[in-house]
């Protein structure tokens, strides 16, 4: 399934990635390139959202945590729903891997602010798990 997903990026004038898309309308990048890049810049989001987004890089490839655990990690243990809201607005999926966060019961939850994207979230998780074997 991952081979059917197209990733593209928008860069700022300095060449830093500022937005990731699941389309072919911008500069195309592979999952591997996106997953390894450090050449990005957060140009939007509140302090809380950015804190959530930057913590995502601490989740190892192929592993997941819950929204509740993410809230605890960033020092806001009662903010699980706010974490979900921040993840829905993540401008840099894959680079900041929001697909690695699930509901406490282990179900997928949302992805990129839309339930129709759950197949992408599952494909990304499946791909990462296969990389760890």
Question: In terms of topology, how is this protein built?
Answer:
Blueprint: E1 8-11, E2 17-21, E3 27-28, H1 31-36, H2 47-55, E4 65-66, H3 67-73, H4 80-88, E5 101-102, H5 118-131
Parallel strand pairs: 4-5
Antiparallel strand pairs: 1-2, 1-3
Helix pairs in contact: 2-4, 3-4
Key structural traits:
133 residues, alpha+beta, three-stranded antiparallel β-sheet, two-stranded parallel ribbon
What would you say this structure looks like, in words?
The chain is α+β, with helices and mostly antiparallel strands and 133 residues long. It has five helices and five strands. Helix 2 crosses helix 4 and helix 3 crosses helix 4.
Largest sheet: 3 strands, antiparallel
Model regions low in confidence, pLDDT < 50 over at least 5 residues:
none
Biggest sheet strand order reads 2-1-3
Form type: globular
Please report which band the strand proportion falls in: under 5%, 5-15%, 15-25%, 25-35%, 35-45% or over 45%: 5-15%
End-to-end Cα distance, whole Å, is: 18 Å
Average of the residue pLDDT scores = 91
Say how many strands there are. Answer: 5
Radius of gyration computed on alpha carbons: 14 Å
Encode the helix/strand succession as letters.
EEEHHEHHEH
Estimate the helix proportion, in percent. 25-40%
Number of helices: 5
Give the helix/strand class. Answer: alpha+beta
């Amino acid at each position: 399934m991952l081979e059917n997903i197209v990733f593209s990026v928008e860069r700022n004038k300095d060449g830093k990635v500022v937005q990731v898309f699941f389309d072919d309308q911008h500069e195309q990048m592979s999952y591997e390139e996106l997953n390894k890049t450090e050449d990005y810049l957060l140009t939007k989001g509140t302090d809380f959202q950015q804190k959530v987004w930057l913590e995502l890089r601490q989740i190892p490839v192929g592993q997941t945590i819950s929204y509740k655990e993410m809230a605890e990690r960033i020092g806001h243990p009662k903010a699980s729903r706010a974490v979900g809201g921040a993840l829905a607005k993540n401008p840099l999926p894959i680079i900041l891997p929001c697909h690695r966060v699930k509901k406490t019961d282990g179900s997928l939850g949302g992805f990129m602010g839309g339930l129709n994207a759950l197949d992408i979230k599952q494909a990304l998780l499946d791909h990462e798990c296969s990389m760890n074997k």
